[in-house]
Amino acid sequence: MASEQIGYRGPTACAAAGITYRQLDYWARTGLVEPSVRPAHGSGSQRLYSFRDVVVLKIVKRFLDTGVSLQNIRSAVQHLRERGFSDLERMTLMSDGATVYECTSPDEVHALLQGGQGVFGIAVGVVWRDVESALSQLHGERVDTGETLVGPNPADELARRRNRAV
């Protein structure tokens, strides 16, 4: 099934991105990373995140772990949003702690390193594959029908029963 047809609920997105539900909720409420499949509509409703949303969540987590300020992360996420999140898996995001740079070629990475400042990078393709691997072991949901998609975990009897009941 194509990744655009699968959504992930909050707890699944948290597990794949390595964040807490409190972080997820705060980031959604403040507009940092909002679910693109289905936003929450009041108490009791479930947000539904796309695969790309989960990749962005993990990128935000990595930036926070390396000390980049939330303000600079917001700028980077806004840039990615304006760009349309296209070609994320081919991108390297670099930061000197104050600014986040998008590099799409080895020459751009090299030019940034020539400045002599200390920088770190996030190879988005690696994050992409990490999220893919994590989500393959977790439950997704069909966007069109709401059917729970069970990963290859044979011990998950509850999800199998839920699908039979529908």
Automatic annotation (TrEMBL):
One of its GO terms (molecular function) is DNA binding. InterPro entries: DNA-bd_dom_put_sf, MerR-type_HTH_dom, MerR_fam. The keyword Glycosyltransferase does not apply. It comes from the Bacteria. Residues 16-79 form the HTH merR-type domain. Keywords: DNA-binding. Residues 145-166 are annotated as: Disordered. This is DNA-binding transcriptional MerR regulator. The lineage of its organism: Bacteria, Bacillati, Actinomycetota, Actinomycetes, Kitasatosporales.
